[in-house]
Amino acid sequence: MVTVGQVSGTWVSAGPGGDLAPGMSHPWSVQGFQVTDAVSVTAFGTTHDNAVRALSVQNLRTETHMPFLWLCFDVANVGTTSIPAYWFNFAIVSK
């Protein structure tokens, strides 16, 4: 039987000077999956002002630091507008 798990996280700027500027990225890493699992990551910017927010999940890679497996990635602002907050979601498919 296949099991699908979902986890969400968020990042919020400390203030206007700390927003994720265009061309900048944040590194992230997560653990809690097995070598046989399929994992996906998505990210999207939150907005309250009708501005277009464009994010990309980049440099997706796995690292093994026994006994843990890590999924490492960057969330990058690929748009033209600073981003004050964003969500990221993980889906883990196991059998």
Structural class: mainly beta
CATH topology (level 3) name:
Immunoglobulin-like
Q: Note poorly predicted spans.
A: none
Number of domains: 1
End-to-end distance, in Å?
A: 6 Å
Identify the CATH class.
Answer: Mainly Beta
Note the beta-strand portion: over 45%
Mean pLDDT rating: 90
Largest sheet: 3 strands, antiparallel
- Could you tell me the radius of gyration in angstroms? 15 Å
Keywords:
elongated; about 100 residues; three-stranded antiparallel sheet; Immunoglobulin-like; mainly beta
Q: Would you mind describing this structure in some detail?
A:
This protein is mainly β and 95 residues long. It has one domain (3-94): Immunoglobulin-like (Sandwich). Helix content is 0%, strand content 59%. It is built from no helices and 6 strands. It has strands at residues 3-12, 25-31, 38-45, 55-65, 68-77, 85-94. A 3-stranded antiparallel sheet has the order 1-6-3, with no helix packed on it. Strands 2-5-4 form a 3-stranded antiparallel sheet, with no helix packed on it.
Brief overview, please?
By secondary structure, the protein is mainly beta. The protein has strands spanning about 5-10, 25-30, 40-45, 55-65, 70-75, 85-95.
Topology of helices and strands:
Layout: E1 3-12, E2 25-31, E3 38-45, E4 55-65, E5 68-77, E6 85-94
Antiparallel strand pairs: 1-6, 2-5, 3-6, 4-5
